[in-house]
Amino acid sequence: MKKLIILLIGIALFASCSNEKKAENSSSIEAKIDTLTYIYDSVKVYSKNIAKAETAFKDTAKATIKYPVFKNEALNKHIQRQVLNYFSDEDPSIISYQEIANSFIRGYDSFFKDNQNTPQSWFLIIDVRVLQQSSNYIALKYLHGDYAGGAHPNSSITFINFNPKTNQPLTLDSLIENDQKPKLLAVAETIFRKNEKLTPTEPLADKYFFDQGKFALAQSFYVNDKGLVFLYNPYEIKAYAYGTTELIIPFNQLQGIAKPNTILSENN
Which residues form the Deacetylase PdaC domain (predicted)? Predict the structure, then answer.
């Protein structure tokens, strides 16, 4: 199972890379679209303790973090804060990408000290990648994958939405009229049921993890050239084995729902 998840994470990373025009050196990539310029930087830390695998293949714990660096410092700080939020509740001393990687490897080394015959080789993968960008909108995909023992690795995808003109995060509340949220929910449920091949009245509680069987929007969203995209992560509405579930609401179905003068109304 662990090897399968690593493969799936690798495929996700490859897919997100495949459409990028890039010139790589050992540590960074230079890119420019519209008015936003950035490079990709990375942090990699490996444990010196080798897991006692039963095969000839030898492995150890590794932590890899890749992220874009913009000339906009407010955006850089916002991206870093989204990544740090995952770790800082457990350890407030983690205040940088480097410390995230160091802390993860320290955890493995501490585990290895008491379990020197372990076949476990932990991993941490953090990959923040630019998805969409223009002069007033940037969307980033934040992929987090880790294994630190247990039945299987964990993985999740969230999206970071930011307006570089105002230097403010872009929330769903800033895009959707408050009194139109019930309509947005109804439109989304109709699309969801069609995608899942469900009848309009078929109970959701039988197959999904929605609270009290009532449809709800995913927490993670961004805007692409097709419309408003929501992504449900493993365990959010389905069992782990089903992976992620994507739901796209086309721009033409957001008329009257989206606030005027936003990226949603601009594309209608």
Answer: 58-155
- Please enumerate in sequence order all residues whose Cβ is within 8 A of that of 178, keeping only pairs 6 or more positions apart, or say none: none
pLDDT band at 229 (very low <50, low <70, confident <90, very high): very high
The pLDDT, as a whole number, for residue 87 is: 87
At CA 19, angle to CA 251 and CA 138, rounded to 5?
50
In a shared domain, residues 87 and 192: no
List C-alpha distances in Å: 192 to 227, 231, 232.
15, 11, 11
The phi and psi torsions of 9 (rounded to 5 degrees) equal -65, -40
pLDDT reading at 14 higher than 50:
no
Strand locations in the chain (E): 30-33, 36-50, 60-70, 123-133, 138-147, 154-163, 168-169, 220-223, 227-232, 245-250
Q: Which domain holds residue 207?
A: 178-266
pLDDT of residue 35: 56
From residue 29, alpha-carbon distances to 81, 164, 219 in Å are 22, 21, 30
Range 117-132 average pLDDT = 94
Q: How many CB atoms lie within 10 A of CB 19?
A: 7
Chain center to CA of 33:
21
Pairing relation of β-strands 154-163 and 220-223?
A: unpaired
Residue 1 has pLDDT above 70, yes or no: no
Looking at residue 268, its pLDDT comes to 59
CATH number of domain containing 225: 3.90.640.20
The Cβ of residue 113 has, within 10 Å, a number of other Cβ atoms equal to 9
Same structural domain, 131 and 63: yes
